[in-house]
Structure formats: C-alpha cells, structure tokens
Amino acid sequence: MENSEKLTNSKEVIAYIAERFPKCFTVEGEAKPLKIGIFQDLAERLTDDPKVSKTQLRTALRQYTSSWRYLHGVKAGANRVDLDGNDCGVLEQEHVDHAKQALEESKAKVRARRKEQAEAKATAGKDGEAKTKKIRPKTAKPKNTQQKTTKLNKKPAETTRALTADEVVVGKNVSVNMGNGNMPATIVEINKDDVRVRLSNGLTMVVKAEHLRS
C-alpha cells in the first residue's frame, strides 16, 4: 500500500497488518495463535508508519484475537508464531481452555441475541396483525329487503243485537245481517215474519225479522 492515508477502523488495520505480515496475520480462514507480546513487536515495526497509531493497533489486535476464527485456531498442539511466522512455542493448556470457554460464551451470546430478535419480530408481527384486525372495516349487513307486512288496523266489530217484536215497525232504521256484514236499511213493509226493507242504495228486499239488527 503506497497510499499513506491514515486508516480509520479496525477492519482496515487488520487488513493492513495482514498484508504487511502475511505469515502471522490472515483475514480469511483459521488464524494462527500469536506470540505472547506480539503487540510490542507490532508497535516497534510500525513506529514510523503514518497509517496506524498504537491505539489503533491495540484495538485491532483485541478484535482479531477475540474473533471466532482466531479462537478456533487456539487449540491443543498448535504453535504460536511471531510477525515473520516463526514458531514461538506450543500453546499451554490453560490458554487452550480459556480460548474454548471464550468461544462458547461468544456463541451463546449470539444465539441469545438471535433468539431475542426472533421473538421481537414475532411479537411485532402479532401486534401488526392485531392492529390490522382492529382497523379492518366491518362488512355492512345486508338490509332486509323483504317488505314488512303492514298490519291493517281493523275496525272493531260493531256491537248489534236482534230486534224485539215491538221494534219491528215501518220506518225504523235497522241493519240487515248479510252474513259478512250489516247493511243499513229502513223498514218499509211488514208481512208476518217477512219484512221488506229499503237499503241505503235504494234497493228493496225481503228478509226475515230475525236478520234485522238494531
């Protein structure tokens, strides 16, 4: 890298030191266990390098050694390496155990975070569905087009009574029982049980006295 512009983040710093020291650092695959005190070696080698500061190196190195691929590489039988890839001794068991524990804890945190995100997403989905149900317009019920039967106000039946013999006289206004109703009429002639009456429409007819009502 000929460009002397200062690096801005740990990812760029790791890529840079992997390019400068490819036998020690890598940006892909399983990483090699680093020599104890590698930071001091890096700081000395890059003292006059304008691209990185000691603070950036320390932060980037911490990120590099806590990554899953680095912790996977810290295993029994593996050797530590210096900046030039030279072996610096076999890993001690306590360092292997520490790396294994750190890896398991890191993976557990990721699983827990993913579970929380999945639960939050599911809850948000249910809330959204509930809100959709609430704002869903109600379907108007079809109006009953069947016409209601209007009840006819029936007139109360007129109360009538049969005429007595004394009431059957010419000129008396009476009602003639016609079976389905009473017709107003006037007695015009009496012949024993037969009585001639004149209806309101002018017609005359003979009826039995028992069919006359008051």
UniProtKB/TrEMBL annotation:
UniProt-annotated location(s): Cytoplasm
Family of the protein in this entry: Belongs to the ProQ family.
Chain segments carrying region Disordered: 105-160
Transmembrane portions of the chain: none
GO cellular component, one term: cytosol
Keyword Nucleotide-binding belongs to the record: no
Lineage: Bacteria, Pseudomonadati, Pseudomonadota, Gammaproteobacteria, Vibrionales
UniProt main location, coarse: cytoplasm
Organism of derivation: Photobacterium lutimaris
Keywords from the UniProt entry: Chaperone, Cytoplasm, RNA-binding
Biased composition (Basic and acidic residues): 115-132
PANTHER family hit by this protein: RNA CHAPERONE PROQ
Main function: RNA chaperone with significant RNA binding, RNA strand exchange and RNA duplexing activities.
Protein name: RNA chaperone ProQ
HAMAP family: ProQ (MF_00749)
